[in-house]
Amino acid sequence: MITKQGHTIRKLLGTIASTLAIAVGVAEARLAPDKPTFAADVVYHDMNGNQSFDAGERRVSGIRVSNGREIVRTDGEGRYRLPIGEDTILFVIKPRGWRTPVSEDQLPQFYYIHKPNGSPALRYAGVAPTGPLPDSVDFPLYPQTEPDTFKAILFADPQPTDQRDVDYVAHDVVEELIGTDASFGMTLGDIMNSDLSLFGSQNRTIALLGIPWYNVIGNHDLNYDAKNDQHSDETFERVFGPSCYSFDYGTVHFLVVDDVEWYFPHEGGEGTYRGGLGERQFEFIRNDLAMIPEEQLVVVLMHIQVNRVWDGDRQKLFRLIEQRPFCMSISGHAHRHEHLFIAQDDGWRGPEPHHHVVNVTVSGCWWKGGPDERGIPHAQMTDGTPNGYSIINFDGHEYTLDYKAAGRPADYQVAIHAPEVVSAAKAGETDVFVNVFNGSERSRVELQFGEHDAWTAMERSVRVDPGYKALYDAEMSIKEKFWKELPEPGDSIHLWRAKLPSNPKPGTHLLTVRTTDMHGRTYVGRRIIRVSGPDGIEPKPE
């Protein structure tokens, strides 16, 4: 039997032992800091499609897996091991000939989010607490055929403000794409116009196309109440996964970057955004490109066009891609459609200019302008280009980009601006303007007046599109409008000008325009013009 005195002595000895143990633990911690946490396990062929690694299923070696910074390849047993922090998204880099699972909304499920404590409290929900890291984070893959020749759909800035705008997206572009033979699609940011609760509705709409749909984060897809850049992507991550990632399809490597940086210009002031990438992303980009063969085409996808990323980050990106023989980039954001050729004036040091596409936007000018017969705003952009989307076609390391105006035939590629009637005496002083929607400084544009006349080269003329200016003036003259007003006209870089021939024969004439793009493809547009006599009177029919 232990006496009261003995119990007290035992309690004292226990306290001393506990104190010594804590002291030893502190000393060990000082000598050996906490070991990093690692995520690990396998990438496998999910033969029964249950997204669970089962006995008998083949492990896949040589597959790249990343934590957003480092990238490793799975070993001969399909295993990987990566360090992981308290806010990490692990993801598999889809290789050629394999696909990842997709959600009911056709969103690729190639990632695992590890946020044990979840996202901070924000207006739009982020990631719920994920709890402790599982013993195994496995990634399923499924084999598929991926030819050298394929196509992808590119949306930029659908940017719905409310459900009505989501319906515009549905009726103006999605419906006409049902049955597409594209291999996948992508939205190049500004998926929303700041109301992130609409992600689900639009995702369900686009999912009706039945193809995997990838997404880039835009400045209107951020959590504006976030206190730093790290937490500005929380809702996007919950819905779409990482904002910086990559994947292969066919012979092409697609690198998606988050070039929207949330920051606070003034201490205690409001947050805003700028074009930037940050060092964490650059670590991933460097590691990613180091694994891509020189002869493979790399397509860099972003929201803010590359020449509007702040200079320090822009130059870092240029240094990583400028010596690759096959590389191009695509963005949205500007609500224009442009082909840019980045050269030495922009700090580019590559042997050839870099081709960057500023993609036409689905919302055009933010769903503004008078309604068409369907009740959908015409939404024409300030450079005179109708709203729409692009289809990019790949063949090995070659590519061509096709512009498609929403609700128009595929061959609607030019708009001709010329008077309805002109006097023969004034014809030689009269301008004809042609807006080649998908044109560039490398396009050739020619005009023919009459079916048998010679073709005349037109001159590229960067200025306000006269068609858009006329539309803008007409709509602004209406005092009471039930639609959103158009933005003011801006210069178009794909506008060409020429004079009509001098002293044409009075009568009705066909004016034909043909344009040949940078890939050697030719498109034609036509307009009928009436020519009056010297006295201003048109010839009477016989």
Please give a structural write-up:
This protein has seven helices and 32 strands. With 542 residues, the protein is α+β, with helices and mostly antiparallel strands. A hairpin with a 6-residue loop joins strand 25 (444-449) and strand 26. The chain folds into three domains: 1-34; 139-405, 4-Layer Sandwich (Purple Acid Phosphatase, chain A, domain 2), CATH 3.60.21.10; 414-532, Immunoglobulin-like (Sandwich), CATH 2.60.40.
The level 1 CATH classification of the largest domain is Alpha Beta
CATH architectural type of the largest domain = 4-Layer Sandwich
Beta-strand content bin: 25-35%
Helix content: 10-25%
Trace the largest sheet across and list its strands: 12-13-16-17-19-18
Low-confidence stretches: 1-33
DSSP E strands, number: 32
- State the separation between the terminal residues, measured CA to CA: 134 Å
Overall mean pLDDT: 93
Report the structural category: alpha+beta
Radius of gyration of CA atoms, rounded to a whole number: 29 Å
Biggest sheet layout: 6 strands, mixed
Short key terms for the protein model shown above:
542 residues, alpha+beta, Purple Acid Phosphatase, chain A, domain 2, Immunoglobulin-like, six-stranded mixed beta sheet, 17% helix
Produce a short descriptive summary.
By secondary structure, this protein is of the alpha+beta class.
List the helices and strands and how they pair.
Elements: H1 4-31, E1 38-45, E2 64-66, E3 71-73, E4 79-83, E5 88-92, E6 98-99, E7 111-114, E8 139-143, E9 149-155, H2 163-177, E10 184-188, H3 199-206, E11 213-216, H4 234-240, E12 245-249, E13 252-256, E14 260-263, E15 272-275, H5 279-290, E16 297-301, H6 311-321, E17 327-331, E18 338-342, E19 354-358, E20 388-395, E21 398-405, E22 414-417, E23 421-423, E24 431-436, E25 444-449, E26 456-457, E27 459-460, E28 463-464, H7 466-476, E29 491-492, E30 495-499, E31 507-516, E32 522-532
Parallel strand pairs: 1-8, 9-10, 10-11, 13-16, 16-17, 17-19, 23-32
Antiparallel strand pairs: 1-4, 2-3, 2-5, 5-7, 6-8, 9-20, 12-13, 14-15, 18-19, 20-21, 22-24, 24-30, 25-26, 25-31, 27-30, 28-29, 31-32
Helix pairs in contact: 2-3, 5-6
